[in-house]
Design a protein that fits this description.
This protein is an alpha/beta fold and about 300 residues long. The protein has helices at about 1-35, 90-95, 120-130, 145-155, 180-190, 190-200, 210-220, 225-230, 240, 265-270, 285-290, 290-305, and strands at about 45-50, 55-60, 65-70, 95-100, 135-140, 160-165, 250-255, 275-280. It has 12 helices and 8 strands. The relative contact order is 0.14.
């Protein structure tokens, strides 16, 4: 019995030391990266006020006869799209492009009393675009942002076209689960563990320079806010209201996406029979980073009716 107690004590202390070292090393690493990025385009953004909260956005293309609004996925941000249209002829595209940070992510505010459901985020983003003076726009949503975008399109006539990039399942029910905030901070927001998780999305690991700005922003999310995403779940899914969306729709999946498998395309095409679609060969869950030229070409062709 004494040997067992001694072993358990050793195991507990060893685990505690490991966690402290692991956590401390992660915090130092992120602090170093954040300091290095202090003068980078990561901090080049604007904001609008919605219901007392600051919503950040980036104007990727400043002029055009039509407007495209981009909504990122879970743990994403507007910064991920800054290079998506760098090889596009702005004059020929003739589209103003705005990428926006949803509440809780990127450079937007992260209020503790906010309802972090897709439906409420959709409401906030519609108010944000109205505050920006955008009367009508095309809307692109990636992954979780695809669900938010569908809520926006279903509730506002200002959305004229809808693009879904690797959207989550239209009927994916999520159970409310309380994850202790301390575990979220120590493990989920750990630099190495999150980088490991991040690289399960693309087919090939992305450069550290791509991941680090995302990590810097994600690390700024209070753990109790992340906890709310596991507690505040939606009660209505796109499959419940898709019939309200009768605008032009385009849906694309990476052919090798394991987070939102391309087989989901068949389900979406039953919901949106008017939709155009594409499979982006060789891409995983992040085609806008993995295959930016192909992804931007698909977007441009759809918006310009080519």
């Amino acid at each position: 019995m004494k040997k067992l107690l001694k072993f358990l004590k050793w195991l507990f202390l060893s685990t505690l030391v490991f966690i402290l070292v692991f956590f401390t090393a992660s915090e130092i690493t992120i602090a170093v990266f954040a300091r290095q990025a202090s003068e980078s385009p990561l901090y080049d953004y604007e904001t609008v006020e919605v219901d007392g909260n600051s919503i950040a956005y980036r104007e990727l293309i400043s002029e055009g006869e039509q407007t495209l609004v981009i909504v990122h996925g879970f743990l994403g941000s507007s910064y991920e799209y800054v290079d998506l249209f760098k090889n596009v002829d702005d004059e020929a595209f003739n589209t103003r492009v705005i990428a926006i940070d949803t509440p809780g992510f990127g450079m937007s505010d992260k209020p503790a009393d906010y309802l972090y459901t897709s439906a409420n985020q959709a409401s906030t983003l519609l108010k944000a675009t109205a505050t920006m003076g955008i009367d009508s726009f095309a809307l692109l949503g990636h992954s979780m942002g695809g669900e938010i975008a569908q809520h926006m399109a279903a509730t506002s006539e200002r959305v004229e076209k809808l693009l879904l990039l690797d959207p989550v399942a239209p009927d994916a029910e999520i159970e409310s689960v309380r994850v202790p905030s301390v575990l979220l901070r120590v493990f989920f927001q750990n630099y190495w563990l999150q980088r490991l998780g991040f690289n399960t999305g693309p087919v090939e690991p992305l450069p550290r320079e791509t991941f680090r700005p995302a990590m810097i922003q994600n690390h700024s999310i209070p753990s109790d806010i992340l906890q709310q995403f596991s507690l505040e779940v939606d009660t209505e899914y796109p499959i419940d209201f898709a019939e309200k969306i009768d605008i032009p729709v385009f849906i694309a999946y990476g052919s090798l996406d394991t987070w939102a498998p391309p087989e989901l395309l068949d389900t979406y095409l039953t919901l949106y029979p008017q939709a155009e679609s594409a499979i982006i060969e060789g891409a995983g869950h992040l085609p806008y980073l993995e295959k930016p030229e192909i992804t931007s070409r698909l977007i441009v062709n759809f918006l310009n009716n080519d």
